[in-house]
């Protein structure tokens, strides 16, 4: 099956938006054994969209479009494709009901242009949008399959995972199941190196790696006629993953490091407190994205200024003056004193230079001290991170989560 | 001049590589006033590459390709295009010399396949590669301009900035300038509704809207022969934008709400402190993404538990017991006491229920109290947000930023 991905949106052609959708779909389709031979991007222009659709229908069997399904005037993908196949747009009652409910739930006033989204080409399969208002559409005509997905990546991936994957698998008469392994403290190239022998001969299962800052997600995907056949294949690979990555695996899921640590703290009932300088609340903020975290997290302090470090965290003026705010000694006092204030099982304190200003030859941008107190005993980790302000902040947070996780896992095992 | 970007490489079609080249070129070309109408991606396959080149020559005046210029067997772009124009590949002595020198300089041994890179189509303009070995090529034939650039982003951008920009500048006959207006507290459809009359007749300038959570970015783009002509057009639209969106415009740029507020605080030298319950540090964290914020931000407290509210923020036990942690009274005490601890010009406190648990009929998930103290005077805003935990947290943060901004702008104007 030859496939083409058509991305619709002038924002892509003027360079405002990076086309991550085409990459996501290419990878997903490749893992399903579908050959993607072309990507095409075209603006919100009906004539040019029609032209590229005609070219695509001439050379591809499966065409997946993204973008142009929303409520505004320049959202034209459905209209152009319905017209091309000589189909009318008809209002779908279920879609209309969902749309009205969407606005009721959010207490938004619905403007009339939103109703445009309730019209779909006649005889088309409607794909629900779990993350937004614009439904997707699948049309089969003249031996071709055309699937229309929304442009915003969250909505597009939500619809792909929720509906399209099933439809494509049905067509191939097979089941596909993926398992995920999320690892920290190993780079993507290094992780891939450890998998090279498997990647080189991959067929079923297939292996894909996705790198985020400080995390590498490994996905193992197997296909087969039934669940048992697939489980056998995946179990074999799970053993290999554990052998090769061991305690670097922080989640057997797509959970981020912050999520995994949040869940672990709740599960083990380990209380935690945070004192942040250069991360400015990022660690507390990412921890508290986790539902139920209030069971173990009570207090975070963002002691950005020296005054706040003295007033709220009781760091001595002498320490700040002798060693500076970014020093092992300040990190230690922040951590020890936080432990006394909070009485938490784990207290963590960070102080560092996120940049772009504030660095010196002796204490450059990226220097961060992390204090970790576990049941009264404080250990300091000195880190040197590269990157801009946001990257230094996120790398610091990830290192903290890695250290917290390690301390709990080591204690428990 | 209609332009098409053709990206060559199977790694793009299987999703291994994100196509950042197409975005970079689109942006650069748009700024030169060149309209990019299509992106096409094709694999390292001579027949399909030839087909997409033929389609491009039929609809575009300027075609820029990236990829397929290297030394390996599957690098075929030069060969396919020379063949299409009926041109021979001839060895370029200067390119050969540079290539040999490249390897001498790096003390690498040159393998023979590298010599493939010294052959270029006859009569073509050779573009030197400041960051690698494969030269680029420009061909003008039959009223069309075809520019072949290497695939690795460093090499591609180096060649674009070093050679292509100059060549295109000679040809350009107009300038293009965009202005941005970022607005809060209005949805995308509602914003577009207010612009519909302009969008319907748009030609020059053009209008585009981009929605993020709680923010809508409006871009106005004009073209003309010189800066003055463009400024006149854009000034006229700026007046309209201010009339229609007024104080909802929080940035005359692409800045996010948090960035705009961070910059405003620094610019006006207004000091700020935060006390967060349900947002868990998100407000402090987004503020401290802003470089230089330490000038105005000293202290943030994440008082997640009742104990922390009492110990660190001195909220009275009576208030917590009588009215509950999520109440106007608690928000007021958090805010007042934070003001006393921090002595900041603006103190902000939030307490609410982010969910999914913890809600009741009387105090449902999404109920948030925001306290804002400006120079001693505290005002409470009661909010009811819909959405999941993360959305409630982000909406709360955005509302806080909106209120902070309003208080500063109102005070100043």
UniProtKB/TrEMBL annotation, chains A, B:
Coiled-coil residues: none
Pfam families documented for this protein: CinA (PF02464), CinA_KH (PF18146), MoCF_biosynth (PF00994)
InterPro entries assigned: CinA, CinA-like_C, CinA_C, CinA_KH, Competence-induced_CinA, MoaB/Mog-like_dom_sf, MoaB/Mog_dom
CDD domains with a match to the protein in the record: cinA
Domain MoaB/Mog: 4-171
Highest taxon of the lineage: Bacteria
Family: Belongs to the CinA family.
Protein name: Putative competence-damage inducible protein
Gene assigned in the entry: cinA
